[in-house]
């Protein structure tokens, strides 16, 4: 029994440590020989904070849309949580993901189970369907942008060492092996997520409820509103990223098409299981910025500051969600 317990503890530690180590390794690789003094100079005198605040407002709005959409998905299951609780649960889930990547999906279901007595298994099923919808959105956005900006993506693949037309260059490219590492990490994440959810469902005998939650999408009463929330989520995500361009002199001239290309590349990079995509996101965004003519140092500053500020927002929202839930439900 003690051996099993130690084994479980070891697995949980690995869930935290390995993503963190992967993110740190990629960050060290990307920022080697980087002049971090300039980051402080830009932070305290070279940024337009109005644009940063506006971009963060859309980051909050995306989470509110996500909470609203989740409430709509739960209604066909005769589960009626408060809209504010759904939003707070989303805030907490993203903050949780900073500690253990992708644990937020479980965390937010637990929040509604505790404060609104929503069936954990049914809400988990709606999260599964939500992930399917979001994956479809990413595929559609990526497909459209890929068709419109094919030459730039071809250049990106060549510059990162994934141009399969030059096998010798590929094999000696550090960027190529970095991408391989990220892909393997993403595959492992998907494997363990499916395995853990299946095992959890089997142990708790809730597989039927999970399935019921997953297919409840077809019974949503307000489908146009659900669609509006989905569009709102992804438009808000894009604006959160794109408006940050205008906070820096070296990126303020970029148009929407450039923003879409980098948004797609950054979104795909976040799939890699590191805290909030730290490392892979920096690598992808820096590479794209340099392809569009931004210097390596400026590209590194943009990636470091934008990612850091957005991560800080997730932490603040998570703390706010916890405090708000505790205060509103202090009698429970």
- Assign the structural class, choosing from mainly alpha, mainly beta, alpha/beta, alpha+beta, or little secondary structure: mainly alpha
Proportion in helices: over 70%
Figure out the total of helices: 14
Query: What is the overall silhouette?
Result: globular
Mean pLDDT rating: 80
What does this structure look like?
The protein has 332 residues and is mostly helical. It has one domain. It is 77% helix and 0% strand. The chain contains 14 helices and no strands. It has helices at 2-30, 37-45, 49-74, 83-97, 104-116, 120-148, 150-159, 167-171, 174-204, 207-214, 223-242, 256-269, 280-291, 296-328. Mean pLDDT is 80; it is low at 162-173.
Short description:
With 332 residues, the protein is mainly alpha-helical. The chain is 77% helix and 0% strand.
Features:
single chain, mainly alpha, 332 residues
Secondary-structure topology with pairs:
Elements: H1 2-30, H2 37-45, H3 49-74, H4 83-97, H5 104-116, H6 120-148, H7 150-159, H8 167-171, H9 174-204, H10 207-214, H11 223-242, H12 256-269, H13 280-291, H14 296-328
């Amino acid at each position: 029994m003690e051996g099993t317990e130690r084994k479980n503890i070891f697995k949980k530690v690995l869930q935290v440590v390995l993503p963190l180590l992967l993110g740190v390794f990629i960050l060290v690789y990307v920022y080697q020989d980087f002049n971090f003094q300039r980051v402080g100079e830009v932070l305290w005198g070279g940024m337009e904070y109005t644009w940063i605040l506006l971009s963060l407002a859309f980051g909050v709005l995306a989470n509110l849309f996500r909470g609203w959409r989740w409430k709509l998905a739960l209604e066909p299951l005769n589960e009626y949580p408060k809209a504010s609780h759904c939003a707070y649960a989303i805030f907490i889930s993203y903050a949780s993901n900073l500690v253990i990547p992708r644990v937020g999906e479980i965390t937010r279901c637990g929040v509604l189970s505790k404060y609104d007595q929503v069936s954990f298994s049914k809400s988990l099923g709606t999260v599964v369907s939500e992930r399917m919808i979001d994956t479809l959105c990413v595929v559609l956005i990526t497909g459209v942008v890929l068709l419109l900006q094919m030459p730039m993506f071809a250049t990106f693949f060549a510059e990162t060492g994934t141009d399969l037309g030059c096998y010798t260059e590929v094999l000696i490219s550090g960027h190529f092996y970095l991408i391989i590492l990220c892909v393997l990490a993403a595959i492992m994440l998907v494997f363990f997520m499916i395995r853990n959810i299946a095992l959890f469902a089997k142990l708790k005998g809730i597989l039927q409820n999970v399935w019921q939650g997953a297919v409840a999408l077809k019974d949503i009463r307000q489908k146009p509103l659900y669609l509006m929330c989905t569009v709102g989520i992804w438009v808000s995500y894009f604006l959160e990223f794109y408006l940050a361009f205008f906070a820096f002199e070296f990126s303020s001239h970029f148009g929407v098409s450039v923003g879409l290309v980098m948004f797609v590349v950054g979104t795909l990079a976040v799939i890699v299981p590191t805290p909030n995509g730290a490392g892979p996101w920096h690598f992808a965004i820096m590479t794209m910025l340099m392809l569009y003519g931004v210097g390596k140092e400026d590209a590194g500053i943009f990636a470091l500051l934008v990612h850091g500020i957005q991560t800080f927002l997730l932490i603040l929202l998570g703390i706010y969600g916890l405090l708000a839930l505790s205060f509103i439900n202090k009698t429970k």
